[in-house]
Write a structure and sequence with these properties.
2 domains
Length: 302
């Protein structure tokens, strides 16, 4: 079915114009049925019922009865729709078929989907934003594919094996031993004391105020993104002066901050109480692995 749909999209784009979004979305995981979701500028100009009928007929002429039985409905949505807005800025897919599972896109949880087309509706190149750092698409930053950045494979970047990057062995990178990297002792790295690094005080570092640092508003977002080992996106980071990172969840809430210990290590603290909750270790390829304080691998940052 996937190849048939790719060919259908190619034919229709040749006849009618570019398709902004085409995806199969399993919105009820317990029911093994897909919703076809479609959005395009030229569809925006059509009556919705006519547009749906157009696509239903196209699908019927392309798929056999077995494939059609896996589709529950066809949904045509405007290119201005909030869901389209978020999705095309998080992904950059064209002419392919990318499985996208258990990911949060803005306010929406996409449990299971196959993305065929997700092109920016305003024509901005999203590849400079999040899409080229999506490990589900780019295998070079996926530790499940690239073993050299996986701490379970590469012991040199695993603090359970390499003591020099383990704060419980190397006291110079442990905030409980080195007061200069402990926000409870050094007020300059404490957002509660230093307002310039507190997004509740400094609007320029608050993504709810400054759209330029918001990954869903700025297609050229360059901040780091945290994924768990299953490739679920968990948070993103804004860098301040190369010594300090502030962490936000994907509802743009300030949840943690990171204080640089050395060129390869950041310690992570809970924003609500300054508690040390983990640390980031360089993977030697422009990213980090995230560990708990007892060296459990929690995820990776790219």
């Amino acid at each position: 079915m996937v190849e048939k749909l790719k060919n259908l999209i190619k034919r229709i784009e040749t006849r009618r114009g570019s398709i902004t979004l085409f995806m199969l979305w399993k919105d009820v995981p317990e029911i093994n049925k897909w919703t076809v979701v479609i959005s395009a500028k030229w569809i925006d100009k059509m009556n919705q019922r006519l547009a749906i009928n157009y696509w239903i007929k196209a699908l019927q002429n392309t798929l056999d009865s077995k494939d059609l039985n896996t589709i529950s409905r066809v949904s045509v949505i405007k290119t201005s729709d909030r869901f389209v807005y978020f999705l095309v800025r998080a992904l950059n897919v064209s002419g392919g078929a990318v499985r996208f599972s258990k990911n949060q896109i803005g306010d929406y949880l996409v449990d299971d989907a196959i993305i065929f087309e997700a092109k920016n509706v305003v024509g901005t190149n999203t590849s400079a934003g999040l899409s080229n750092r999506n490990p589900a698409i780019n295998g070079s930053i996926n530790p499940n594919i690239n073993g050299s950045i996986n701490p379970n494979i590469n012991g040199s970047i695993n603090p359970a094996i390499n003591g020099s990057i383990n704060p419980n062995i190397n006291g110079s990178i442990n905030p409980n031993i080195n007061g200069s990297i402990n926000p409870a002792i050094n007020g300059s790295v404490n957002p509660r004391i230093n307002g310039s690094i507190n997004p509740a005080i400094n609007g320029s570092i608050n993504p709810k105020i400054n759209g330029g640092i918001n990954p869903f508003l700025n297609p050229n977002f360059t901040g780091l993104v945290l994924y768990d080992p299953s490739l679920n996106r968990k948070a993103y980071f804004i860098e301040i002066l190369k010594e300090f990172l502030i962490m936000f969840d994907f509802s743009n809430n300030f949840i943690a901050f990171c204080v640089k210990a050395n060129k390869d290590i950041y310690n992570v603290f809970d924003s609500s109480n300054n508690k040390w909750i983990g640390y980031l270790v360089s993977n030697k390829q422009n990213g980090f692995n995230y560990f708990s304080t007892n060296a459990q691998w929690l995820g990776f940052v790219v």
